[in-house]
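Ex. 9. Protein: Ribonuclease J.
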Amino acid sequence: MDLALPNAQELWFLPLGGTGEIGMNMNLYGHSQSWLMVDCGATFQSPLNPDDDNRPGAKLHDVVAPDPSFIENRKDSLCGLVLTHAHEDHIGAVTALWPSLGCPIYATAFTAEVLKRKFYQKGRYENLPIVIIEQNTTLDIGPFTVSWLDITHSLPEPQAIKITTALGSIFHTADWKIDSQPVIGKPFNRDIFKNMAADNIIAMVCDSTNALKPGYSRSEKACEKGLGNIISRAKGRVVVSCFASNVARLITLVKIANNSNRYAALFGRSLENMVSVARRCGYWPDDLKLTHRRHIGYLPPHEVMIIATGSQGEPRAGLAKLAANEHRDCDLDEGDTVIFSSIVIPGNEKPIANIVSKLKSRNIEVFQSEHCDEVIHASGHPNQGDLHDMYQFVKPQIAIPVHGEAEHMRANAEVAKAAGVTKQLLGKNGDLFILRQNVSIKRNYVSSGRIAIEN
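Predicted structure tokens for Ribonuclease J:
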């Protein structure tokens, strides 16, 4: 008998990535000789040894994913891969790892479209077992009954997951926040999660990214006023850099451009691809107009808005080329404005600072969300207020913080305790969380390394 397979009286949670770190989310749920995988993500420009994450001079790899060896060796017991949303830290490793897993993939239409394009770029586009799930659907996958639940995040169709077994249910939040004005999709619906309290949820496996921040996460709608104020005051060109997957932010920016007599252009393939996916899935308003980037360099500066990739200082991205005055489609001049409609992801401080220094040395005005009086970025993750409310809505027996470094997860556990959750389990990748019958953690149950993926 394989001791790494749970029996019918056991219910397990086993994170292989994303617990004790931000990025590379890969989670396994085990019950009755079967496993269910939730998300299969990657991270970028990272070392293979987690201890080297912040060490100067460590060798970095372009794309890094969790080591899937444990589940690859048990792929016959893997019922399926459930994808919660289309961010790279949740789907970025699927095209590389799925061929060795071979299981069905479950995703909503937007996430499925993003994933299909990734497979197409890899030269594979036939016979993919992608099952497109309607939002708020419930489906049996092996011994697991999976319910997709609408939640609010920073891209279309984010889903939380309720996993029900014969032994009880687990609530996997994935990435989320409480947003009453999300720009895309429906507002956060508290009733969905309040109703779960009657289900006597065994464990809530919860996003910890912003657990150190007090209060509530800002609404995505709040960015429209702040960005609009800065752009309305700008005399020359405006360049805004943001995460390509944040379709709501892209819609807000193009709307501001159209309303302020500026032509908006996209600098970056990932931006162009995401807008194309949004159009195909019906999320891009027909009246929002974009201008081809090849035309933008010929227009008067005060009529130009450029939305560029590279908010994290990526050296080959559009913003880095503009900062170095090396972009083939447009030059920046003194008096132009650059807005970072993003946060600094830990580890990217130095490359971002280098770009900011280059821009300021040319007398280009720079706005960064961390130092700006206006609201120019809204996180997609829950602050302490959001977390406290969700724990009180769902009333789980156990809180399991994930999606964060150790300090974030400890803070999440403290919020859960204050919200009345009597038991908090803190672990890391490779630890086995036994949720039925006797609640416990087996430390270092599985080797949980990292692997480099060829881009």
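Check your answer against this statement. Residues 11-215+379-453 form a domain with the Metallo-beta-lactamase; Chain A fold (CATH 3.60.15.10).
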